[in-house]
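Figure S7 source data.
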Amino acid sequence: MVSLFYPELCAVCRSNLRPTEQVICIECRHELPYTAFHRDPANPMARQLWGRFAFESAAALVYFHKGSSVQGLIHQLKYRSKANIGECLGELYGRRLSAAGGYRIPDIIVPVPLHVSKQKKRGYNQSESFARGLSRSLGIPISSGNLLRRTATETQTRKTRFMRFRNVEDMFVVRNPEEFEGKHIVVADDVMTTGATVESCSIELLKIKNTRISILTIAFAE
Ligand SMILES: [Zn+2]
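Tokens for the predicted zinc ion complex:
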């Protein structure tokens, strides 16, 4: 009944969604600036990460440009409690990856964790929303809670004691390494800009025996 009075609006163009549409209307889905990075192992995102850590593949669903519809979607996902945008884009991406054929589907999805305090404030982790959508459409499990972000104080303490560490290193810790042993792990994040965060996560995950890493993000900022 509620939807009769408050019809769901497309998260991009704000038009009324048809009963068969969810979150983003069909027209806006067609207009998204898709990257097709999953078909190109030497794509710009992978190139940006080359030589920083070992990975199988790195790809983003769409390009992130200032003032674009993608920026609007990411903003709503992060600051307007629209976790369903993350799930919608994750599901969309998983379907595209499965349909592409050549994409090597990993064993498990690990969303980049937020600081506990930040997640409490926001109520959810936007990367986990994206990961949930991916998990559904790729048919692989998600692990959220085994890779943890250190608290700012812990990081700070370590920084003063070991100045040689770069800022991005040592930010994450794995609670139970055995869960990831021998696994091909996809690290899922919302937007990749410098790649510092996914690098930091991956370095931590690669310390575990026989792990392989792939990266999937909603968007790639050039
Ligand atoms: Zn629309």
